[in-house]
Amino acid sequence: MRTAFAETAVELLDEDPLAAVVLAEISADMFAAAAARHPGRVLNVGIREQLMVSVGGGLALAGLRPILHSYAPFLVERAFEQVKLDLAHQGLPAVLVSSGASYDAARAGRTHQAPEDVALMDTVPGFAVHVPGHPAEVPGLLRAAVAALGSGGSAGSSSYIRLSAQANATAMPVSRSLRVVRPGSRAVVVAVGPLLDPVLSAVAGLDVAVAYAATVRPFDRAGLRALAAASGTVVLAEPYLAGTSALAVAEAMGGMPYRLLALGVPRRELRRYGTPADHARMHGLDPAGIRRSVTGFLGSVLGRRGAAVRSVGWPVPVAGDAACVPVRAGAVTCQGRDTLRPPRGRGVTFASHNDLRAPVAQPDRAAAF
Amino acid sequence: MRGAVSGGTLAFMRTYAGLPALMTLLTGDEKHGPSATSTLDVLWVLYDQVLRISPDRLDDPRRDRFLLSKGHGPAAYYAVLAAKGFFPESWLPGFGSAGSRLGYHPDRALVPGVEISSGSLGHGLPLGVGLAHGLLARGLVVPRVFVLVGDAELDEGSNDEAIVYAGAVGLPNLTVIAVDNRSSRYGFGPGGIEAHFAVGGWSATRVDGRDHGALAAALRVTSAGAGSAAGGPQLVVASVEGKG
């Protein structure tokens, strides 16, 4: 996706004399040739993310159409007040493009992971949020986002485009609406961006509809309301912080009783390295984990407690869940079978070395148990 | 309010000597008094003698840009803007009230002539760097970008990102005015604020922040005209009395 982004951004620089790209070292090599052609409109400010965002605001103040790009934690989290004030509060539109989504950098550790990015951007008024699921979806989303910036300092609108190294096998048409990928009656599963393929694998044989979303802000409230009206049962499968779109679902379903299972990256830190596939499994976002959660959820809402209207967040304590959940004071259960005692004293205790099914208990976490 | 002011009084209020009277019209709990007045002379000289801007060309791409980064204590700023006709004096009473466009920190969406909303420190200079870049990228080489910061505001690290970068790439259309009332907690060491900007192509001068002639002379000098900085950005430190 990052290559598709850079190629399209370079095309825009060549086509549009008001387009500009601001970088903070990350991906600078992909813009070297364009910088030679357009030295005033391709700026690399060095490892200075606050400045990168503010310079973007200043360029917009001069009537340019700025595209800002860095790694997600540095673009969104490190410079968040600049996003809030120097873009949104000033009324200066820009396109923010991050790479390194959620656990793309599983080996790099927590410093390079920002699954909270969409939740943070959701607090900034006026930002559209796009989560492409395939590299071929990126050019259309980027072009539309830059066009939405307006021209000559007029009040356009901003966008956040979240690129990931995870991708579906095939691209979907670019649309701001939910797109039904397969029909079903018991629930509608909203699969966001690169979670579409894992969701489709997970729900094979289940009577649930799957709808794809690459644009999550604005959320297609009318589309969801229409799709979920009959079942009143919604599953969100978001590749970032679990529950990020729960409010959007509540607004979409306003006035209607509904049940929600919100799948995504949990708040707890894994403190594990590994591959994105390892992290997907540990977060319960691989096909097997999603299937466990969805079948458990459908069983609980349609089984003996089927009459109850309730909203369920992560972690969902269902049998076989990949998450560790407390079962009683002093014990947790992981995947329904590994019971750990919290470690005593200082330091990290590896309950089962290299056993990725048993996340590491932490002293500070143990205190909460 | 406007109708209560006679023509002669209005004319007086639009001079430097009338600014205190305009500031007294700003009612409410204005809690940043000392810093408001630290900028009074710099602001007056800028709007009276330096900036190529007027209320009838607010959207002119060729206008100079003035960015008040130190947005707290804006009484002097509002008074000068009112004196220069950017908005009527009748806006001044009610400062900070729900019905007023004038708050404790200025909002560009609410006040004509205000180029940036400010209040949180350390945003104006980085925005100014982007603005200076953007004007040059559009071929607008004449307009200058002035950013007013306080010396204590330079405590914010975002300024350092902007100072090093602007000095390295060279932005001849950028001028920083640092109003120095020695309120930075730990100060700047023997070299003063100027040492803080002694990177890349910055040039620096220090003047008496109450001396209109000296301020005007320093602020009218363009980087190219000065020939001192080979196209780099400029720092003008305006010394004023200490805060305490």
Structure description:
The complex is a heterodimer of chains A (about 375) and B (about 240). Chain A has 13 helices and 16 strands. Chain A is of the alpha/beta class and about 375 residues long. In chain A, strands 2-1-3-4-6-5-10 form a 7-stranded mixed β-sheet, sandwiched between helices. In chain A, α1 (about 1-15) crosses α7 (about 140-145). The longest helix of chain B is centred in the middle third of the chain and has 14 residues, at about 125-135. By secondary structure, chain B is of the alpha/beta class. Chain B has one domain (about 1-240): 3-Layer(aba) Sandwich (Rossmann fold). Chain B has helices at about 5-15, 20-25, 35-40, 40-50, 75-85, 125-135, 155-170, 190-195, 210-220, 225; strands at about 65-70, 145-150, 175-180, 205-210, 235-240. The radius of gyration of chain B is 17 Å and the shape is globular. In chain B, α2 packs across α5 (about 75-85), α4 (about 40-50) packs parallel to α5 and α4 crosses α9. Classes of the chains: A alpha/beta (about 375), B alpha/beta (about 240). At the A-B interface, α3 and α5 of A face α6 and α7 of B.
Q: How do the strands and helices of this protein lay out in sequence?
A:
The complex is a heterodimer of chains A (369) and B (244).
Chain A: H1 2-15, E1 19-23, H2 32-37, E2 42-44, H3 49-61, E3 65-71, H4 72-78, H5 80-89, E4 95-99, H6 117-121, E5 128-130, H7 138-147, E6 159-162, E7 179-182, E8 188-192, H8 196-202, E9 209-213, E10 215-217, H9 221-228, E11 233-241, H10 246-252, E12 259-265, H11 276-282, H12 287-302, E13 311-312, E14 324-328, E15 331-334, E16 338-340, H13 363-368
Parallel strand pairs in A: 1-2, 1-3, 3-4, 4-6, 5-6, 8-9, 8-11, 11-12, 12-13
Antiparallel strand pairs in A: 5-10, 7-9, 14-15, 15-16
Helix pairs in contact in A: 1-7, 3-5, 8-12, 9-10
Chain B: H1 7-13, H2 19-25, H3 33-38, H4 40-50, E1 65-68, H5 75-83, H6 124-137, E2 145-150, H7 157-169, E3 174-180, H8 192-196, E4 203-208, H9 212-220, H10 223-226, E5 234-239
Parallel strand pairs in B: 1-2, 2-3, 3-5, 4-5
Helix pairs in contact in B: 2-5, 4-5, 4-9
